[in-house]
Model the fold of this input.
Amino acid sequence: MYLTESESEQAFRAEARDWLRANVPLGLPSGDTADGFALHLDWEKKLYDARWAVVSWPQAYGGRGASVWEWLAFEEEYYAAGGPQRVTQNGIFLLAPTLFGFGTQEQQDTLLPRMASAQDLWCQGWSEPGAGSDLAALTSRADKVDGGWRINGQKTWTTRGAFCTHLFGLFRTDSASERHHGLTYLLVALDTPGVTVRGFARLDGDEGFAEVFFEDAFVPDSAVLGGVGTGWNVAMATAGSERGLTLRSPGRYTATVERLRTVSGIDEDRLAQAWMDAEAYRLFTLQQVSNEQAGRGRAGESSLNKLFWSELDIRLHELALDALGADAELESPWSKGFQFALAGPIYAGTNEVQRNIVAERLLGLPRK
Amino acid sequence: MYFGLPDEAVALREGLREVLATACTPATIRGAWDGDVCESLWKELGSFGVAGILVPEDRGGLGLDELSFVAACEQAGYAGVPGPFVETLVSLPELDLPLDGSARVAIKRDGATPYAGTATHVFATRTWSLIHPPHVDALETVDRSRQLGFVTGPSTELRTPQRQGLVERRGALGTAAFLLGLARRQVDLTVAYTRQRTQFGVPIGSFQAVKHALVDAVVGTQFAWPAVLQAAAHDPRDVHASIRSSAAKAMASDAAYQVSRVCLQAHGAIGYTVEYDLHLFAKRTWALANDWGTAEQHRAVVARHLRSEG
Done:
């Protein structure tokens, strides 16, 4: 076994490391503010020009056709070099896998290159005021009209919605339907007449959230991803990516532990636990990928994954704040990171929902 | 790249699962509580070859690697094999003893020796000598199959190379795997029970209070297993090998202990009886969580490593 990279994997890692160390911008402001977002876009374009934006995609769409192992290595090197958050993540990590799985050739050819080059910036339109954990309770609807669909309703808690250009989301296209039936996955340009976006501040003070209003907004038939009425299944594919490793690769946490090691006054016993936990997450991911490639993926595995990284992220930041003592209340990368980590158990399906999924699908406990 | 058990280890585990399904039932463990040394179980283990997993083929062993070793220990933990399973497997490569299950080896350090009351031989690793036959001054233990005791008796110094570090590392690693097997068994018992036990008109396993506590405990074991795998995959000559096995033991100790707490709680009063089987696995978990080094002690090994690395 097993943990030995092949020569080509080593070469890939080395090339990524060299480029990232020479080019990663350090000290960028938060990408969840208008000014910060613009600076992050410059970085995303630089990544794209050097073909590092979407390494796992085919070359034709701006990628390198990298294997999942190479992608994991890239992620490790990205965060080890101090690379910033990816403001394009909801497009490249969440929508893109769904487009590869369900999109028409035309949708792929049109949308993927613009997404990779950060010309189109995607946000996710799942939650509504009355539909959070209970996503199937959503009421935003799209009614069939000549040549397309007319959308009415509201989405909310849309991450970076105020800075994005497009939204992917679920809409009720069969007015007689209930729950997860009769939903359709639609791709909507936010400059469409009838769409209004209002940004608002998250817990950490950044304008990272938005609510999106639809009033008779028209989208063409080509805006449907997957089939009409099959939106739930298409969306669940995205949710799997979000909970699992594409959104939160292990490199983030191993890099955070390395930064923790430079903080003075840190509790050594807890630091050892943090190091072991980040390693365990890395190893669990390698095992998960190995199992999936061997056709032995397990139900509920991406939920296990999400439970672990979201709780781990909070523990890592708590450890830093405890070491900082009274200074922990000052604005700093650690206090900022702590507030962001607190969102982990909430977004991408609350951890309570994930625990239900693991209990029912992996352990076999009864739903009722 | 591939990270997981190799086919050879999976085959061994599946074979052992079948052997233990009949050779080691809860009745077997209860027999051990009453003082049975379980000779027939050990004969089965011997004829399956498991005693010699780590013994080279030219000495009649299976000559397998540590991945097969941890796979076997996990499965033995699931069955709750009574007696010095891990201790025998890590000792036999160092000793010239039969591999047919007739030798059950306990390991003596300072203080009382676990499984002294069921062992045919006692390996004093500090002095690298073998005590046979052991005279045992027995102690009462919470898990009565553990049979701790103070050992004296005729002692022979061994001439083999002194590999205390290897025995310690393998013992901690095998115990980590054994603990995760014990945890998996307790979770299986708990899932089965909470599916059929009805209160307030529904199975108690449908309550989120039960589900969420159980899942949180299971998360710990699910993330400890890859740490065990990596420690087992590590090149034994690597200076970091003992760091990896310490990490594995620390994680497995904490995770398995937490599982034992939650599983007992989920059962309610039935779990708090000696008629029901859960306690057989829970009590072994409590003992093994601290045997071969506590979680805290092993974390201290990792912490020392992180400090020295700068």
Summary: Chain A has a mean pLDDT of 94.
